[in-house]
Amino acid sequence: MTKEKVLSIRDLSIAFKTSSGLVNAVRGVNLDLYKGETLAIVGESGSGKSVTVKAIMGILSNNGKIKSGTIEYTYEENGEKVTKNLLDFSKKEMRKNINGKHIAMVFQDPMTSLDPTMNIGNQIMEGMRIHYKTPKKEAYAKAVELLELVGITDAESRMSNYPHQLSGGMRQRIVIAIALASDPDVLICDEPTTALDVTIQAKILELIQSIQRKTGISVIYITHDLGVVAKVANDVNVMYAGRIIETGTVNEVFYEPRHPYTWGLLLAMPDLETKADKLESIPGNPPNMEHEVVGDPFAPRNPYALNIDLRLEPPMFKISETHYAATWLLAEDAPDCPLPKELQERIERMKREDERYVGTDETYTFSEELKAAL
Amino acid sequence: MSEPTKPILSVKNLKQHFKVNRKFTVKAVDGVSFDIYPGETYGLVGESGSGKSTIGRSVIRLYDITDGEMTFNGQDISGKMTKETNEMMRTKMQMIFQDPMASLNPRKTVMDIIAQGLDIHGKAGSKEEREQQVIEILERVGLSREFANRYPNQFSGGQRQRIGIARALIMNPDLIIADEAISALDVSIQAQIVNLMKDIQKETNVAYLFIAHDLSMVRYISDRIGVLHLGHLLETGTTEEIFTNPLHPYTKSLISAIPHPNPILEKKRTSLTYDYAASGLNYSEGTLHTVEGTHKVLGTDLEVERWLQKDNQSEVIGVS
After folding, report:
1. Rounded mean pLDDT for each run of 10 residues along chain A, 374 residues in total
2. Residue A303: which CATH number?
3. Which of A168, A297, B108, B180 sits CB 3.0–4.6 Å from B112 for a disulfide?
4. Number of structural domains, chain A?
5. Is the pTM of this model over 0.90?
6. Where is the ABC transporter domain (chain A) (predicted)?
């Protein structure tokens, strides 16, 4: 079965002009989003993940400049399939044709993305009324339907509520309802649950998943929480210093991570059985992108760095059809570098958990090469 | 686990009410009791509005408490304190705040920020001694001595949080209240700060009251945990007890909501739902029942009996 490509980013580079010089926030990013699938972008603050999706929406701040690249988006227009480069559109055209209508976004903080002076019914209807000129009655009926879809009880009476009358979790549900109002094909969620409590976070994630099953929408998830990634994503892209340094299916990245930064991220998060005295932490701080990068930007924090890392930035090495990583450790004449012991134990634990709770037929099968290495 | 030593902090029936207007009072904390022993970490978890930060702030007397008893180092700190008690409490109990951006004075150098406690309590000594102490502490938290004359805006979030920790440490405290001290940091930096806090604990035997909503970190760092909801302490016990045998439905929903970093398992799980209004529970009717050892749960006799009969471990995993 071939998957339908919805969004395809190639070689995207973005720089910001600031008082202290040019900041290269995104440096040559490639991404593919398929219909009905979920793509996660993981990274620390300043890694360029938010900037990438803002470029998709055409909402970069004014000092941001796209240096190179294409964002090809395939959508239906008047019953025909067209593929267009989103970067060719002007801001006005983006607003009119793409934003909200085809690609919608959910932001981190529901309090700042809702209008406090407008009742939520009108906020949900606004998009439909403007994009599709939906008659008011129809829009109202659909808004009530959407509220029910996002799990708000007593939807009819909630329509006239204002954001301040709702709790944080409810507000984020409203934001999702607004994003879904104009039937977009792509939903971008920029840390949708960071500002929420864990219990509410779980509910919102499950909500987005159930909507995805019902409507077949494609979702891009930005997060720094690997637990969230495990829950929702099909494909994972790990970003560091403006580049994607490891990409693969969620199982490949969790069971066979190849980049030392991904190792560090996985180990920095204690799982349910971590009892070690010390968490394996990534030393140092993320790099300042104001400076020109020579070699691998992760090298100074990387205990497994090779000499070549200091001179040359590694290209993407292919591990499988879907799995790529940018580290010189994968080069042909690189020294053998096994997974850190803690991570091996962690993966073993994951396998045991899977066998115990999910059943053996669905557990992850390692590639032959890695099996030998373990 | 029985603790032969005396608790460093003992809180009994703490109530903290805020009067909004004549008719309406917010009962942020409504009768909470717990003990913290020297050298241990007590984690307080709960959702926003559960009163966990309020407890931290009440304990360090940023509020005047409504009712209850608190003893710290064997001295009563719940009412008006004598000058000596006040002095002892203000030096031996320190706090680390959530937002490292907002909790450091932008117009002071790191040296002055860290030494402020010494200055106020007249413990700084000569200028050289003061400098020496600050530099020692700076190096202890993993910052270089050159940083002493810089200003907070020149540091990243993780470094600022280290300054916050240094400021607390310089008073040689017995108890540090860490109010969401790592929530605002990046994942890789969180692990660094947690490791630092653990190291310091081993060296100085300081106790932590660790307030957070991220249960996986709390599980990792805490020896004992208290689960709060709507101002009531619902369940408390050692980390092991809480996570392997969670009894209260709210504790279960909290634990089941943590996403596991395991994609195959996680895709099969659904988290438990908990709704206080629909649960039929009334927190103020329940009493704390001891299950075993230090494991206690809030509920009526009937409720607790019902909870004890369930298979609590597999319910939390929630694989359908």
Report:
1. 85 90 90 93 88 91 91 88 91 89 89 90 92 92 90 88 88 91 91 80 87 91 89 93 93 92 88 71 80 85 89 91 92 84 86 77 58 48
2. 3.40.50.300
3. B108
4. 1
5. no
6. 9-266
How do the domains of chain B map onto residue ranges? 9-244, 245-320
Are A198 and B47 an interchain contact pair (Cβ–Cβ within 8 Å)? yes
A198 to chain B: which residues are within 8 Å by CB? Answer: 47, 213-215, 254, 257-258
The minimal CB distance from B259 to the residues A168, A230, A283 is found for A230
Residue type, A345: E
Percentage of chain B lying above the pLDDT 90 cut: 52
| Pick from A200, A227, A283: CB nearest B258 | A227
Asked whether the beta carbons of residue A230 and residue B190 sit closer than 8 angstroms, the reply is no
Using CB atoms, pick whichever of A202, A224, A274 lies closest to residue B271: A202
Cβ of A45 and B186 within 8 Å?
Answer: yes
CATH of range B9-244; options 1.10.1060.10, 3.10.20.70, 3.40.640.10, 3.40.50.300: 3.40.50.300
B101–A contact, CB cutoff 8 A: no
Condensed to tens digits (0 to 9), the pLDDT of residues B185-203 reads 887 788 889 999 999 999 9
Task: Establish if B291 touches chain A: CB-CB under 8 angstroms.
Answer: no
CB contact under 8 Å between B254 and A358, yes or no, is no
Mean pLDDT in chain A? 87
**Domain region containing A300:** 1-102+188-195+218-335
**pLDDT tens for each residue of A277-327:** 777 788 887 887 777 778 898 998 888 888 898 889 999 999 998 999 999
Instruction: Please report residues of B whose CB lies closer than 8 A to that of A200.
Output: 47
User: Which residues in chain B touch residue A285, judged by CB atoms under 8 angstroms apart?
Assistant: 156, 158-159, 189
The span from the CA of A144 to the CA of A106, in Å, is 19
Residue A232 lies in a domain: yes
Q: How far is B173 from chain A (nearest CA, A)?
A: 23
